[in-house]
Specification:
- It is a single chain.
- Helix content is 85%, strand content 0%.
- It is mainly α.
């Protein structure tokens, strides 16, 4: 029991009449707390302004990026259309060459030459792969 009394005495000497701490906090004057609240509100408003301006800049950057990508996709679509036209013209010419009998022999000759060079190239690569000493 004396321990409890000593503890209370030490506590009262330490806080010197600030018993409001035990009851939930210090009691300040109303003008001081309104100044603190006003200051906190102004800080929060400034923080919100910064965040809003950041989001506005970010959305503007996203908008610019989207416009750039749309332009790129439009150019790619136009290039693909041009390539499709060029390729269809080439295929039509190739069909005309194939339909002629003499041209068919020429195509067979070209195809066999290409096949010969591909096979010859692969044989040389294979030969060099097995006969060159590797470190």
């Amino acid at each position: 029991m004396s321990y409890r009394r000593d503890n209370q005495a030490a506590r009262s000497a330490l806080f010197d009449g600030l018993d409001g701490i035990e009851e939930g906090g210090l009691r300040a004057s109303s003008s001081y707390s309104s100044d603190i609240n006003q200051h906190d509100n102004e800080k929060a408003i400034d923080t919100l302004k910064d965040k809003v301006s950041f989001l506005k800049r970010l959305s503007g950057d996203i908008h610019d990026e989207v416009l750039g990508h749309n332009r790129l996709l439009d150019r790619m679509g136009n290039n693909m259309d041009a390539s499709r036209g060029f390729l269809s013209g080439t295929v039509n010419r190739f069909k005309m060459v194939i339909e002629k009998k003499s041209s068919r022999k020429m195509c067979i000759l070209v195809a066999s030459l290409v096949t010969f060079f591909v096979v010859f190239y692969n044989l040389i690569r294979l030969f060099l792969y097995f006969h060159v000493k590797q470190p």
